[in-house]
Design a protein that fits this description.
Rossmann fold; five-stranded parallel sheet; 36% helix; 15% strand; binds phosphoric acid mono(formamide)ester
Length: 309
């Protein structure tokens, strides 16, 4: 039962609750009109202290498709945050106007803090380089739909594994499913954090490798999760420029890949997947973005919708 709960970290959801969300998302996708009044009269607040296209708009589209309404800001300079208002006061105020808050913030831990001051459910839409739990819902639903299962897979994470919050949330969650193996492909400076290796991976006895060579592992992968280098988290531009094109996936690099590989990317893409790959049937990143809306519909419905679903 998710009614009224916060979602700050993917670990807030049990595997059975994830399954319930995915099966509701699938039902919604099949017959969206059946759910069009589930949130009639409810208001979703989207508070984005960092840029977004997919997360904010898919949440807003999801709420509108459930019959609810949206308010919020996409740019904190248009709110009283610009006058120095604290996050705690902003949240207490918005919680008086809305039934649920979706927030993205550049500071790690901001969503947890918001949840402590909110009288309505808070959903973390990304807190710095830490977590992005609804991207994980999106990724898992996509894998489940296109591969039939989220177990027994070899998943390659490629790119900025240090700052990429989508990688952190997805790796920790896939580690909770049976028999998954992981390959972390990154330059030395952008390796997956130790806390993930010593935490979720160790706890779940996950077999994993680290390499900086994508081509050397391509043929082993069932899922390739590409990511962009997170310019906004770098301390200097020089390092970003040196690392930003370290990996560019193109048709040549996919020559040894499995026929049933799926290529995911949370998006936005910068240079790390050549446009020519978009025509490859294994490229699933735009389908992934669409699944994101259905799973967010399922999440909103489960947190604040009329109990019917
Ligand atoms: N995947 C993702 O979080 O995209 P946006 O930054 O566009 O929301």
């Amino acid at each position: 039962m998710l009614q009224g709960r916060h979602l700050v970290d993917p670990q807030d959801l049990q595997l059975t609750e994830l399954e319930d969300l995915f099966s509701l998302a699938q039902r919604i996708q099949k017959d969206p009109l059946h759910y069009r009044d589930l949130c009639r009269g409810k208001i979703l607040a989207t508070l984005f202290f960092e840029p977004s296209t997919r997360t904010r708009l898919s949440f807003e589209a999801a709420m509108l498709r459930l019959g609810g309404s949206c308010l919020g800001f996409a740019e904190p300079s248009s709110s009283s945050v610009a006058k120095g208002e604290s996050l705690a006061d902003t949240i207490r105020t918005v919680a008086a106007y809305a039934d649920m808050i979706v927030m993205r913030n550049p500071k790690e831990g901001a969503a947890l803090l918001a949840s402590r001051y909110s009288s309505v459910p808070v959903v973390n839409a990304g807190d710095g380089g830490h977590h992005h739990p609804t991207q994980t819902l999106t990724d898992l639903l996509t894998i489940r739909q296109l591969r039939g299962s989220t177990e027994g897979l070899t998943i390659g994470f490629c790119g900025d594994l240090r700052f990429g919050r989508t990688v952190h949330s997805l790796a920790e969650t896939l580690a909770r499913y049976r028999n998954n193996r992981m390959v972390f492909i990154s330059p030395q400076e952008l390796k997956i954090p130790e806390y993930i290796k010593n935490g979720a991976l160790a706890r779940n006895n996950i077999e994993y490798r680290e390499t900086d060579r994508l081509e050397s592992v391509m043929g082993d992968l069932d899922v390739l999760y590409m990511t962009r280098v997170q310019r906004e988290r770098f301390f200097n531009e020089e390092d970003y420029i040196r690392l930003k094109d370290f990996y560019i996936l193109d048709n040549e690099k996919l020559k040894n890949a499995k026929k049933d590989l799926i290529i995911l990317h949370p998006l936005p893409r910068v240079n790390e997947i050549a446009m020519e790959v978009d025509a490859d049937p294994r490229a699933a990143y735009f389908a992934q973005a669409k699944y994101g809306m259905y799973v967010r519909m399922a999440l909103i419905a489960s947190l604040i919708g009329d109990a019917a679903c």
